[in-house]
Each structure stands twice: as C-alpha cells, then as structure tokens.
Automatic annotation (TrEMBL):
<dbReference type="InterPro" id="IPR001273">
    <property type="entry name" value="ArAA_hydroxylase"/>
</dbReference>
<keyword id="KW-0503">Monooxygenase</keyword>
<dbReference type="InterPro" id="IPR036329">
    <property type="entry name" value="Aro-AA_hydroxylase_C_sf"/>
</dbReference>
<comment type="pathway">
    <text>Amino-acid degradation; L-phenylalanine degradation; acetoacetate and fumarate from L-phenylalanine: step 1/6.</text>
</comment>
<comment type="similarity">
    <text>Belongs to the biopterin-dependent aromatic amino acid hydroxylase family.</text>
</comment>
<dbReference type="GO" id="GO:0004505">
    <property type="term" value="F:phenylalanine 4-monooxygenase activity"/>
</dbReference>
<feature type="binding site">
    <location>
        <position position="115"/>
    </location>
    <ligand>
        <name>Fe cation</name>
    </ligand>
</feature>
<dbReference type="Pfam" id="PF00351">
    <property type="entry name" value="Biopterin_H"/>
</dbReference>
<keyword id="KW-0479">Metal-binding</keyword>
<dbReference type="InterPro" id="IPR019774">
    <property type="entry name" value="Aromatic-AA_hydroxylase_C"/>
</dbReference>
<dbReference type="InterPro" id="IPR036951">
    <property type="entry name" value="ArAA_hydroxylase_sf"/>
</dbReference>
<keyword id="KW-0585">Phenylalanine catabolism</keyword>
<keyword id="KW-0560">Oxidoreductase</keyword>
<dbReference type="GO" id="GO:0005506">
    <property type="term" value="F:iron ion binding"/>
</dbReference>
<dbReference type="InterPro" id="IPR005960">
    <property type="entry name" value="Phe-4-hydroxylase_mono"/>
</dbReference>
<dbReference type="GO" id="GO:0006559">
    <property type="term" value="P:L-phenylalanine catabolic process"/>
</dbReference>
<feature type="binding site">
    <location>
        <position position="157"/>
    </location>
    <ligand>
        <name>Fe cation</name>
    </ligand>
</feature>
Length: 248
C-alpha cells in the first residue's frame, strides 16, 4: 500500500490543520524534548498533511526507520514484524470534522503527529525495536503478548519522562489528545516510577483517560529495561491472570 497523497480532500487538510493548531499550543510546556526536536527535524506544519515519501527520507537518515502504510489496525504478528524491521505502521486516513475529539481506532493524526517525531530519537527506537523482537519470540503465547501490550501501552502510547526535574510527555496517545495532554500532567493524574513488574500487572482501558501513568528517567532506561521485560515473561508467560484465562 501507498499513501495516495492526491486523494486528500479539502476537508482532510482542514481536519489536519485544526487538530495540529489545537494541539501544538499545548506542547512547548508539555511534550518531551525529543518530541519537540523531532517535530522540527521532520518539518511538520499545520498547513500540510505530511507526505510519507518526504518524511521517510528524513527518518531514514536520522534513525534508519520508515513509515509503512497499513489499512488500519493489523494483527499482532504483522505489527511486531514491522516494528522489528524498523518500519512504523501508519494509516493514511484522517478523521472527519465531526470526530475531532474521539475515535474508536487511531487515524493518521494519531499515528503520524503522535508517534513519528519521537522516532527521530535513537534510544527510543532501539527500545521499540527490541521490545518488538521480544514480542515475536512470544507471538504464539496470547498471555505473553497481552503482557507486552501493557508495556507498549504505558510507554509508547501513554509514557511520561522526567526531564530537568519536570515530567513531560512522549506517549503518542497523549500527544495526539488535547484533553489527555492537560490531564496527564495535572494534579488529578497518578504518576508512578517506571517499573516493569508494576506495568505488567496493570490493566488498561482504551475508552477513558488513564488511571495512572509511568515516568521514565530516560529513553536509555527504556532500552535497558528490555532484559527485565524478557526475564519477567520467562517467569510469568505461562501464568495468566484468572480473568484473562477465562476469556480465551
């Protein structure tokens, strides 16, 4: 599949511009430095939907990664295979004007605006690639994949990082949501230090703001935690929680 850039409509450009301008004002005091730096490196703007061919040239030079077009949500095997090969799966469709605040599945704004800037950080993408390689080793174990999905969720999607004494956002699920950007850094949100066992034991929901967030000290900490992730799986992958075991 390819991004059919000429098929984008005036409404698509309007949606991108509205979402971009609404969120960009929140980010200087909220987003991680790696995200803000990445946004500049790949030259995203409000007036132009990103062209994947152009963005891929930048990404390839920076970290060796590329955006890979997918039709939407894909199965775990394909998803982790792409990531293990330094290809980030992204849809090309944008939400409608009537859907600015809620979507049941991620669109291009989430995939590209939320995720791609941080793909310019080498330590982060090294973590993402190694996590995906671990997932592929356990791909036939549904409980292990469920545990890995918790790690992915609370880092890649909803992760926070401490920078110069301040908590900042690097997770795409937060960065693509104006509401959760404000909530996740507010006094209402619960923050925990990044801990593999804690995250592996924490369920999540997709339809509400998160009850808790996990804060890393650096992207290098994420990468070095992959050994702990594999060790945890070695001792827990065959011991599913009761509610999970009952559902499969």
């Amino acid at each position: 599949m390819r991004q059919e850039y000429n098929n984008y409509t005036p409404e698509d450009f309007k949606v991108w511009k509205l979402l971009y301008e609404r969120q960009i004002v929140n980010l200087p005091q909220a987003a991680s430095q790696a995200y803000l730096d990445g946004l500049k490196k790949i030259h995203f703007t409000a007036d132009k939907i990103p062209n994947f061919d152009e963005t891929n040239k930048e990404l390839l030079q920076l970290t060796g990664w590329q955006i890979h077009v997918v039709p939407g949500l894909i199965d775990d095997d394909k998803f982790f295979q792409l990531l293990a090969n330094r290809k980030f799966p992204s849809s090309t469709w944008l939400r409608q004007l009537s859907q600015l605040d809620y979507l049941e599945e991620p669109d291009m704004f989430h995939d590209v605006f939320g995720h791609v800037p941080v793909l310019t950080n080498q330590s982060f993408v090294d973590y993402l690639q190694e996590l995906s390689k671990i997932a592929l080793r356990y791909i036939d174990n549904p409980w292990a994949i469920h545990l890995i999905s918790r790690i992915y969720w609370f880092t890649v999607e909803f992760g926070l990082i401490r920078e110069n004494g301040n908590v900042r956002i690097y997770g795409a699920g937060i960065l693509s949501s104006a509401g959760e950007t404000k909530y996740s850094l507010s006094d209402e949100a619960t923050h925990y230090p990044y801990d593999v066992a804690h995250i592996m034991g924490t369920a999540y929901r997709k339809d509400v703001f998160q009850k808790q967030y996990f804060v890393v000290d650096s992207y290098e900490q994420l990468f070095h935690s992959t050994d702990q992730i594999e060790e945890y799986l070695q001792s827990h992958a065959d011991k599913p929680e009761a509610d999970f075991a009952a559902s499969v």
